[in-house]
Specification:
One of its GO terms (biological process) is vesicle-mediated transport. The chain is an alpha+beta fold and 607 residues long. Helix content is 49%, strand content 18%. The protein folds into four domains: 146 residues, 2-Layer Sandwich (Beta-Lactamase), CATH 3.30.450; 144 residues, Beta-Lactamase; 112 residues, Four Helix Bundle (Hemerythrin (Met), subunit A) (Up-down Bundle), CATH 1.20.120; 175 residues, no CATH class. Strands 6, 12, 13, 14, 15, 16 and 17 form a seven-stranded mixed β-sheet that branches. It has a five-stranded antiparallel β-sheet with strand order 2-1-5-4-3, sandwiched between helices. Strands 8-7-11-10-9 form a five-stranded antiparallel β-sheet, with helices on both faces. Helix 6 runs antiparallel to helix 12 and helix 8 packs antiparallel against helix 9.
């Protein structure tokens, strides 16, 4: 049983995605309670609302009034529920897996929702297309976690995109081809902020971007891979609108509107052309305003007068930035947008005056008036977000046709290499190549958390495996639990294998950065963050290491090196599994030489 239900602030069902067994289970409960007449009757939103309303209402009371919301429920027969909050919506994830796995799936589902909707979650303006896209992405991600293809499982488990290793000459040819594609987009369509990605069998071959484009975050790469896989059974050309994140250290990151054009080429190749649109300062300020508004709503419901004023000051700052960006970037507004801006400005001015009066006297009646005016202000903000994007020069149908033509040009240029790339993707890295230099090494996984890419030997399906899959998955979960306690190096062994895990930081020149910050003490006393990463949660349970639920490693680098500017610190992980006879000293030495060997093979500038 597995499913996701999302409730809005009025406790109505905004979204549901339930598999067959869970639907049957809920239907049986509904029939027992008299909510459904007979078996086979459709399970509609009203039935879900009546069954889950007591839990959701209790959850909201615990969260809003006591700031102590439920993180999860554990029920009989391994049936578990986990909760999350995002922009006023309550996410309920249901499944028969461990709580930690369910919470990670919930965090990923919330992140995918942001990617599909931006800040106007489940808005009527988005229509059924975005909802269908979200469902496809969630189903794709979760199906990859349980499928038999271990190589695919490995990538989704670690939340990193596998890098395809090719020789320098072919690499240069691919990059030149993609650069020519971006230049053509600039000259023919006037597109200044674009990216081009080439995937082969869900492995990254190359990523090229223009200078004006916002660099992609590790989560963006993985989302694009999920998107490509989710839409693989559909037509060869497809264009969808999404909202990427961008690197966290950029001031305009968080909500980057993009048109993604997918083209399926010869030999399992997928070309993704990304066109950023919208005015980034405006989109970013509206994005931040949404999250501050939710913070204010929570603070007011908790009756925390001390926290309300700084929250209001943040809101005032972001609204001011939004209005300034509107004046600067949308000088020629169409009628609908101009009318929306006037309404938004009027509602904000009214709300601002009420807050000013409240902070003079702190009268409860004024706070009630503010709370009654906030929903209308939020609706105007949603409308402003939608219309400001609609007024931008988004790719027209003619330009989309040009993207299809550009993809055909790329396919023709790479046609002679297509079969080689397909074969190479099927067997990217073999552990056999490392056995002579690293005796006793069974498997390794090397991840650049700053780029979101990984390298690991292929786990070949249908052949006898020295390393059981369960051992590998347990290793990852085991080390994550220690990482959440501040341990960046972990070693242990069982009767068969010796396991080792290393996390370290480097500067841009490849030099090792040593953290003087006591992570263990910090994690012990405060926990790492509060699970909010980019607004993805509202509970104080420790966040899960990864890149989709939150950019865990970026925040970890910022915590360890607060004086270094964002993007100046690279984070790496290495998992190694040796035969049990290998000593700890040998495993450490192997890890050092293995990283150096991989760097020589891959090249510093490409991983």
């Amino acid at each position: 049983m597995n499913g996701l239900i999302v409730f809005n602030s009025a406790n109505d069902v905004a979204y549901q995605n339930l598999n067959g067994p869970l639907t049957e289970k809920i239907c049986s409960i509904a029939i027992a309670q008299g909510l459904l007449p007979t078996p086979g009757a459709p399970l509609d939103s009203n039935v879900l609302l009546q069954i889950f309303s007591p839990i959701i209402s209790s959850q909201r009371i615990m969260h809003c009034q006591f700031d102590n919301a439920y993180a999860s429920f554990q029920c009989e027969n391994g049936f578990n529920l986990t909760f999350g909050e995002l922009l006023g919506f309550t996410f309920l994830k249901i499944g028969q897996v461990e709580i930690e796995q369910l919470m990670r799936q919930l965090g990923v589902a919330m992140t995918l929702t942001r990617y599909c909707y931006g800040t106007n979650l489940f808005g009527s303006q988005a229509g059924a297309m975005q909802q269908e896209l979200l469902t496809q992405c969630i189903n794709c991600y979760e199906s990859q976690l349980w499928q038999e293809d271990q190589q695919e499982q490995q990538a989704y488990l670690l939340e990193a995109l596998p890098k395809l290793l090719i020789n320098a000459e072919l690499k240069r040819t691919v990059h030149v081809t993609l650069d020519a594609l971006l230049e053509q987009l600039r000259q023919t369509g006037g597109q200044q902020r674009t990216h081009a990605l080439l995937l082969v069998s869900n492995k990254l071959v190359a990523l090229n971007s223009t200078r004006q484009a916002l660099p992609l975050a590790p989560a963006d790469l993985l989302f694009l891979a999920i998107l490509s896989r989710a839409l693989q059974s559909q037509r060869s050309q497809r264009a969808v609108a999404v909202f990427l994140q961008g690197v966290t250290h950029d001031v305009n990151s968080g909500c980057v509107p993009c048109i993604v054009h997918l083209s399926r080429l010869h030999g399992h190749q997928v070309l993704l052309q990304l066109i950023e649109y919208g005015h980034m300062p405006l989109t970013s300020s509206i994005y931040d305003t949404f999250f501050v508004l939710q913070k204010i709503v929570a603070v007011q419901q908790q009756g925390d007068a001390d926290a309300l004023k700084p929250a209001y000051e943040s809101l005032e700052s972001f609204v001011s930035q939004t209005l300034t960006a509107l004046k600067r970037h949308l000088k020629q507004k169409h009628d609908d947008l101009e009318s929306c801006v006037k309404k938004f400005t009027a509602r904000w001015e009214n709300l601002r005056k009420m807050y000013v009066e409240f902070f003079k006297s702190y009268e409860r009646e004024l706070l009630v008036r503010i709370e009654s005016n906030l929903p209308a202000f939020v609706e105007e903000l949603k409308q402003l977000f939608t219309l400001s994007l609609a007024s931008c020069d988004i790719a027209s149908n003619q330009q989309l046709d040009q993207l299809a033509e550009s993809a055909s040009v790329v396919e023709a240029k790479l046609l002679e290499f297509a079969e080689f790339l397909a074969v190479k993707a099927a067997r990217n890295i073999s552990i056999d190549a490392y056995l002579e230099d690293f005796p006793g090494l069974v498997h390794f996984m090397y991840i650049n958390r700053s780029s979101g890419q990984m390298l690991a030997p292929d786990l070949r399906q249908g052949q006898p495996q020295l390393l059981p899959k369960s051992k590998l998955w347990h290793m990852v979960e085991f080390t994550r639990n220690y990482l959440k306690k501040g341990q960046t190096t972990v070693m242990w062994k069982d009767r068969t294998f010796h396991y080792s895990y290393f996390l370290w930081f480097e500067d841009l020149s490849g030099g090792i950065l040593k953290c003087s910050f006591d992570l263990q003490q910090h994690f012990l006393s405060t926990g790492f963050g509060n699970g909010n990463g980019n607004g993805n949660g509202a509970h104080k349970s420790p966040p899960e290491p990864g890149c989709l639920p939150m950019d865990y490693y970026s925040e970890l680098a910022e915590l360890c090196f607060p004086k270094l500017a964002g993007g100046k610190v690279r984070v790496y992980e290495l998992y190694c599994i040796h035969l049990g006879l290998v000593t700890a000293t040998c495993a450490v030495e192997h890890a050092r030489r293995l990283v150096a060997t991989i760097s020589d093979v891959v090249g510093e500038g490409t991983f």
